[in-house]
Every structure is written in C-alpha cells, then in structure tokens.
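Dear Dr. H.,

I hope your travels went smoothly. While you were away I took the liberty of generating a structure for the chain from your last submission, since the lab meeting agenda had it listed for discussion. I wanted you to have the full record in hand beforehand rather than looking at slides cold. The sequence, exactly as received, is reproduced here:
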Amino acid sequence: MENPQVNQQAVDDYRLDVTDFGPIVRANVNLRPLTVFIGPSNTGKSYLAILIYALHLGFGGSAMRGVLRRMGWPLSLARPGASIRKSLRNWLAKVEEDSLPALPADVATHICSALEQANGFGRHLEREIGRCFGVDRLGELVRRPGGRVAAVDISVPQNDTGMVRYKVGISQKGIRLSGQLSEGLVPTPEIFNEAVIERVKYWAPGGGIENAEVRDLEQLFRFLARATFSTLLRPVCRNAYYLPADRTGVMHSHQVVVSALAQNATMAGLQPGEAVPMLSGVLADFLSQLISMGGGRRSPLRRMSEFGTPLERNILGGDIRLRSPDTGYPTFAYCPSGWKEELPLMRASSMVSELAPIVLYLRHIVRPGDVLIIEEPEAHLHPAMQTAFAREIARLVRSGVRIVMTTHSEWFLEKIGNLVRLSELPKKKRARIEDEEVALSPREVGAWLFKPSNRPKGSIVEEVRLDSETGLFPTGYDEVSETLYNEGAHIFNGLQEGDEE
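The corresponding predicted structure, in token form, is as follows:
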C-alpha cells in the first residue's frame, strides 16, 4: 500500500522532468535525501546522474557563484531605474540591527523578472553540461531516434504553495533557458540568512556608506537578486560530488597521473603536437579532487570525517591513510588492523580501492547538506558487505548528506527496504533492533526504475514503491531468479532421466 507522504514533494527536495535526453525517453524524478536509480545496463542511469551533477555545478557550485559576480547576472536586464534606486535608498534607511524590512514591491518585482529571464546564465550552464559529459556539442545528448530537443524541467517547491521552475531546452544550437516563479511568490526578508543581513548592513546608513551612490545601489540590487536566486533554488544549489563507476581504476592510476604532473611541473608547456587525452568533467573533477585532497584549501567547517571511521572499521578492516610528500601531491595507502606497515592502494583488494574514495571524500570534502553521487556502490563487495555498506549510506543520510546512487544490487535494495520498514515500527519495538538509529522514513527514500522501451525506443523512468507485504522494491530481479530456477530444474530433471536410462 502506498504511503501518501511519499507523493508530497518536500521543501528540501526538487523535481526533475526529463524527456529525450541520452537514452531516456521520459523521466519524472523527485530528488530525495536518498535517491536510488535501478534497472538494466545501458538504460540511462549514469546519464541522469551526471545531468544532476552538472545542474548542481551549474546552479550552485563555487564556479557558478564566481560567474554570477563577474557577469552581474541576473542583471542582464536594464539596470534598476531611478524609481527602484529611490525605493532601495528608502529601504536601506529602515534596516535594523538584526532584521530587514520587507522589500519594496517594485524592487521585488524587478528581482523576480530578472530571475525568470535568466539572461546570460544559459551560456554557463551549457558549458557545464558539455564539460561534465565530455561532449563538444550538446546536440549529441539528444535522444536518437527522438525529437530534436531534449527538455529538462527543474521544479523547486517553496515553504508555501509556491514553486520556482527552470526549463532547459537542449539542442544542436545549445541551450535555451527560461524561469518561472509562481504568481505571488516574492522574495521576503525571512528567506535571507544572517550572512545576507550582515552584508546588507554594509550599504545601510552607519554601515560604511552614509550616502549610497547610484553604483552602490546597483551593486546592492545585484546582491539581493543573487541571494534570492541561491535561496529560492537552495536544493539544486547544494555542492555536489560525483564518484564514478570506474573509481577503482582511477585510484590505481592516480600515482601515475601525479608522477606525470610532477614531471611536467617545470615545463613551460606541452610540446608542440603532443596529444592530450580528454576526460569527461566527471572523471576530471574526481581526479582533481583526489590530487588537491589534504591541501587545506577548504574552510574548517564540520566535515563528515567521523562517518568514514565506521566504514573502515565495519567493512574495510583497516585505515585509509593520506600522505602529503614533498611533491605536494597526496598519496594514499591502506593499513589493515593490527599491521604496522601500510600497503599502497594498488596492492590492496579491489574492495578497499572501491571504498577508499568514499572514506577520503567524507574525511576531507563532503559536509552536511552536500550531495554525494555514487555509481554502483556495491562494486567489488561481498553481499554481506553490500548490506553493511547500505547501512552506512543510511547513516550518512541521517547526518544530512544527500545521496544519489545507481545500483544493480538486490542485496543493497533489500537492506534499504528493511531500514524503511524499520522506521514504521513503534519506538519500543524498534529500540531492540540493531539498526534503529539509521532507520529511514518512506519520505526520505525514492527508487526509480529505468525500463527499456521499444516504442518509442529508449528508456522510461518510473518510481517504484516499496511493497508493504514483501518489503522489497519491485525491480524485475525476481524474473532473473525465476529464469535461473527454471533452468536449474530443467537440468536437474534431465540428469534424473539420464540416471533412469
């Protein structure tokens, strides 16, 4: 029986409606704290996961924030006129120590208009999507056979009944972007955090600018527009990190890449005619983050380092270690429990190499509120370790990290299903079960099945709900089991008949 809460889109979630993208004919996905993509190979799971990553980088990455500052977006419209500047000046005079007054109606309307038109922003998003997929022309991402345009609609709910939507059209010509804010949805002071309030005080009387000039007021307007954008689209503006399916190979070749970088560090540039292999943005980002790991470049906010320890203790049976030699590039090693000497990752098991990046990301990069996209987390893991890892994934979700993952593992899904059903037990009964602290509510988990379609040719992506009787997500894996069982029974019968002869 379906849980009615699952059908409601929470404020911290957002929805993607995708058509004719890659192999995907149609996908309607609500991005929840734990979002799972399942289905046969070559149906577009990675396509959609990479698209989600590109959208997060495009809308909210640090590079995006720099782009907004440089290009003055979203003020590719006409600059605020004299009446709006006057309204802003009057508004500044009412700013108090710890709160902001309501924005003047004409200022709020102009901000919303700028957000909807999104002039100039599409170029940045186009570059980011192309980079992440490693394509020169975005037309290569349009489904074939299919339409001439791939459509991506992003819907972000607000605290009330309002909605912010951005429509992205992808074609041979590039990207066409437009936004839409629900009627009556205006930026109110309540949406701004303390950092925004402190910045506004800079423009207010007594905050350093006693008599705001035209340029100051234009800067203030741009700042308010950017703050409104990042606040209204907060779910898709989160920092995102992608762990690709071939991360084991990257970890094994990491030292080779580092050696090449060190060798070329003193060169003025590449030799003429030297071939430069191209990487997709996903792989390039993964490699870049590994190389810069441990460099102390991130501010000392709370990371998820304490959540890497259970992975090491419960699954890896040892520690993942990072060293920063004189070259400045990190090296990684594995030290089994009870050993004094470390092993290079290349000499460790494939399970260790597979999970090492996750431990390292939790220790050095990922923070609560970030999005961590993991392809095939079950790779190289024994079924018992797959279920143990599923429990640690649930622990991450409980701590505030949002997970998007692709998987082929029935063991993994069954464990997630158990954790969801566990949340429905009364507290007294739940307390006697080992995994009580990592139980997930039905609203926190969403599973989407990528189903091959012949007419039209491609994949249809639909949500699959947890069966309340079996406790399983309907994935189609049972058909494989049934086929194997029937095959085995047929062979057994044949052997019995042979004995009788």
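Two observations you may find useful: The chain has a mean pLDDT of 81. The longest strand covers residues 163-171.

With kind regards,
E. W.
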